[in-house]
Every structure is written in C-alpha cells, then in structure tokens.
Amino acid sequence: xxxxxxxxxxxxxxxxxxxxxxxxxxxxxxxxxxxxxxxxxxxxxxxxxxxxxxxxxxxxxxxxxxxxxxxxxxxxxxxxxxxxxxxxxxxxxxxxxxxxxxxxxxxxxxxxxxxxxxxxxxxxxxxxxxxxxxxxxx
Length: 138
Description:
This protein has one helix spanning 7-13; strands at 2-4, 32-46, 49-63, 71-86, 92-105, 109-118, 128-135. By secondary structure, the chain is mainly beta.
C-alpha cells in the first residue's frame, strides 16, 4: 500500500493505492552489507484523475542477521529513477531515493515499510510512505 505524504496530492489522486509487487529475496544471504534492488510501479486514481509511477534502482542494504534466521531485520537505501505521468500528460523521468526498513520472518515472509522521495512534477508531489508484506513462493 502506498500513501502520498501531501494532503493536496491525496485530494487530487486518492488517499492510497494497492499494487502487487514482485520481489526477489535470498534467504541464504549472510549478515552484513549487500545490494538491494528495486523495481516497482503504482497508480493513484480518484474521480477520473490518475498518477502513474514506475521506478527502478539499486543501493546498499545492511542485513543485521543472516537471512536464514527466524527474524532478520534490514535497512536499505536506494537511488532510483522514477518514471511518472499525471493524468494523460507525457511521461517524465526524475531522480529520487527511498529508505526501507524491514525484516524477514521465519524464512517465509518479508515485511517492510519505506519512504520514497522524488522531485515534484507540475507542482505535484508523488513522494510518500508504503508498507509491504511479501510471501515466499519458490
């Protein structure tokens, strides 16, 4: 679930969005420094207005316990490229960053919260908070 951090954006494009996420997580990672990849999308829509975001990036992740532990907290900081469009306007690419705090639980579930910070486009902020629950499939 993604929630924009500004009430103006919420009143125009909606208060929240839900989107499926495909995530890769290695439950064999050792404790310590590693890479965190990010690829995702979200769409806010309300009353015929729509804001779309596609993002991708990479950055460091610190895993505070081996991923094979029953509880393995982590923090990740990534630089992303955000490709965004408001309503039927043109797609624009802007730099941004996100900070994520989460944990794998019982080697089956990853829960996290994050904040995405991205430049305004046409005076609209698409920065915001999100929460995620991922379940191991393979």
